Amino acid sequence: MRISVPAETRPGETRVAATPETVKKLAAKHQIIVQSGAGLPASVTDDAYVAAGAQIVPASEVWAADVILKVRAPNAEERAQIKPGTVVIGMLNPFDADNNAAMASAGLLALALEAVPRITRAQSMDVLSSQANIAGYKAVMVAANTYQRFMPMLMTAAGTVKAARVLIMGVGVAGLQAIATAKRLGAVIEASDVRPPVKEQVESLGAKFIDVPYLTDEEKDIAQGVGGYARPMPVDWMRRQSELVHERAKLADIIITTALIPGRPAPVLISEETVKAMKPGSVIVDLAVSQGGNCPLSELNKTVIRHGVHIIGEPDLATHVAADASALYARNVLDFLKLIIDKEDKLVIDREDEIIKATLLCAGGELLRK
Ligand code: NAD
Questions:
Q1: What is the ipTM of this complex?
Q2: Is the backbone of residue 149 left (phi > 0), alpha (psi -120 to 50) or beta?
Q3: Does residue 181 share a domain with residue 103?
Q4: Residue 130 lies in a domain
């Protein structure tokens, strides 16, 4: 089988869908072609791919393949170069109905890795987790870089410096890693989430959980989420959360927001009123900015200062850790490939398989996810 790895062209995308480690595993049985320079933004040279068994090709030859491994969905120009029937695997943005329809009309067999279900068998293919983990770490790094004070408490001959107070809103994969990273730097941490099991996880990392009690069975039920993901909480619960968060935000030096609800705008968790009440020089990193943001003042791809607060709106912080983000992503892709390559090294798309069913956007011209 011919498996190809194009260079990513979306602005700001630094990752690559295969690394020499994963190429080496595939090259024993398949022809692997890599576009010249595809790995460079992630610090992987063409020579490293060649040493792993790949063949380097120019951009004009990379689209002729049985399987194309991507980070982001191919754009219109790239799509036009892919022959019908080709399997395309990547973070193809399953909620983008226009893109799904375009890939269907191009006759592609498109598999969106963000849609991998949260079941034990699929854990090693879970790109949202592997990348959110990195984003959570990097969010603390960029916050610390902007914040004009120390993170840990310091006792010096010139006096004592207080530890930074960090507030984490949304404690999924990114939020947990943000807590762990801020803890390593010596910050004092509080966190909020809607889902009940999060309290114990937050406390086990040495942070304080901001408890917003559930007053009705409906609230308790919605807070359980679906398939590991949150659902929009009732207005009354959100109001009580917002009042508590407002008080905690006044004391915070850094707020990292990560709260997402799949396929919907991100919930507003840090209102303009709350930003106004924060200390000057404090920092907000809004990881949900591409879904509209958890703070209405955050701006996509920008750092702005509003009411004296630095608000960082970087949507894809994992791209700032390109080498490790690619290494983990490529392993997710390799594990996913094992699902669609049989013992005789042939391509088999088993539409009855739960993971394939969830990720398949289109095949043979048929649009399966609208
Ligand atoms: P996510 O990126 O979808 O959302 C981030 C967090 O925001 C979630 O914890 C969510 O509950 C929270 N959130 C949503 N609305 C909120 C609000 N109004 N206020 C506060 N917080 C809010 O979540 P995620 O990181 O993808 O992970 C969600 C869960 O799934 C985690 O517990 C994770 O450990 C679990 N998970 C399970 C598997 C598996 O079983 N295979 C794999 C990956 C993740």
A1: 0.94
A2: beta
A3: no
A4: no
